[in-house]
């Protein structure tokens, strides 16, 4: 059990490499092969594995929930079926096969489609300084960074003299975050689902950074905003930042296929599309090492809100004033050609 009282996931590895399939997972060394991960729905539930082929069910599913696959586990067997109740794990979950080691490695790309990008560390510093500026924060103010990932902004914000609580659902990321924050007494990290935040001491600002909104259904996304409202002091501010906007996807400014060089060598290739029926970006990442060995994440899908639509959602959640910026200096209002969307909402 963890702090959220969840049962931990178990992995069921069905043996044997994939046969005849051309997908990168089948061409990965044994250590990278994947297992179907299952969760008991109730203590008496039967563990279930249902695989349609060497990659199992869920490989390429587009419905936002799928049987989870852990890149660190063994591959599934071909066409294996074990009957019982099946519990699906969504892509964004720590066991969903997207956020994890591969994501962290891929985050350290040397440059991206962002103009003037100088890498992850420089980006993080600029973003933290932008948060302080746009939220009007002073030393000693309290901030909730949710979701905080492996803590890069939380630690950078603490260095600005702020008291920061970072919240994320991924325990592996939180371990890295705690280790990075060891020298910083004013930062702490908590494990929680952003849809059901635990009570915290009221904060002056909540930040949701780097494309971390829209993972759920629109109803749940609204609940996330309402949860942020409950964490804030009266007059407090909420800042959401994303590079992925509707115009950027539709015009190809964020390309449908992109390859980035990685700091550790090799490349990251991203395939993505905006599904205009669901308004969700659907994508998948593949990391290729210098020797040509490929590893692929689970597919992801994120609801991309139009800027005004997001502002309206903030108002519905209880914010009064919502401002839309197109950059961290706050000088430019958001427009269709902006390199990012930053919404600052005040209670
Ligand atoms: C795109 S990353 C960004 C993280 C961080 N803001 C950054 O810029 O490094 C999104 C994060 O959301 C977390 N996450 C996904 N679903 C979550 C949930 N339901 N509750 C809390 N965190 C979640 C993931 O674990 C991941 O760390």
From TrEMBL:
InterPro entries membership: Methyltransf_25, SAM-dependent_MTases_sf
Keywords assigned by UniProt, alphabetized: Methyltransferase, Transferase
Pfam families: Methyltransf_25
Tagged with keyword Transferase: yes
Name the record gives this protein: Methyltransferase domain-containing protein
Compositionally biased region (Low complexity): 76-85
Statement: the UniProt record of this protein carries the keyword Transferase: yes
GO annotation terms (biological process): methylation
Domain Methyltransferase: 143-236
Sequence segments annotated as region (Disordered): 47-85
Domain of life: Bacteria
Any one Gene Ontology molecular-function term assigned to this protein's record: methyltransferase activity
């Amino acid at each position: 059990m963890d702090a959220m009282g969840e049962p931990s996931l178990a992995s069921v590895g069905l043996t044997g490499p994939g046969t005849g399939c051309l997908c990168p997972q089948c061409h990965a060394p044994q250590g990278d092969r994947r297992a179907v991960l299952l969760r008991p729905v109730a203590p008496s539930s039967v563990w279930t594995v249902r695989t349609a082929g060497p990659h199992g069910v869920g490989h390429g599913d587009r419905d936002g929930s799928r049987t989870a696959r852990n890149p660190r586990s063994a591959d599934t067997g071909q066409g294996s079926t074990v009957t019982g109740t099946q519990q699906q794990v969504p892509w964004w979950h720590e066991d969903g096969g997207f956020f994890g080691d591969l994501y962290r490695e891929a985050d350290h790309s040397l440059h991206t489609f962002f103009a003037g990008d100088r890498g992850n560390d420089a980006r993080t510093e600029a973003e933290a300084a932008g948060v302080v500026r746009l939220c009007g924060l002073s030393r000693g103010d309290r901030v909730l960074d949710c979701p905080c990932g492996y803590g890069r902004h939380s630690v950078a914000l603490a260095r600005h003299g702020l008291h920061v609580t970072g919240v994320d659902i991924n325990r592996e990321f939180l371990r890295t975050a705690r280790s990075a924050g060891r020298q910083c007494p004013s930062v702490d990290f908590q494990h929680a689902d952003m849809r059901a935040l635990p009570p915290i001491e009221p904060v002056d600002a909540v930040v949701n950074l780097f494309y971390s909104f829209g993972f759920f259904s629109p109803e749940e996304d609204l609940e996330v905003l309402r949860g942020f409202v409950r964490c804030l002091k009266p007059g407090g501010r909420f800042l959401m930042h994303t590079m992925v906007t509707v115009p950027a996807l539709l015009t190809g400014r964020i390309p449908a296929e992109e390859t980035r060089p990685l700091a550790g060598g090799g490349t990251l290739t991203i395939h993505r599309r905006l599904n205009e029926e669901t308004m969700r970006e659907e994508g998948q990442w593949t990391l290729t090492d210098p020797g040509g060995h490929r590893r692929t994440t689970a597919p992801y899908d994120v609801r991309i809100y139009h800027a005004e639509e997001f502002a309206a959602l903030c108002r519905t959640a209880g914010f009064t004033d919502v401002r839309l910026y197109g950059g961290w200096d706050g000088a430019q209002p958001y427009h269709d050609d902006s390199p990012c969307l930053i919404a600052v909402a005040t209670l």
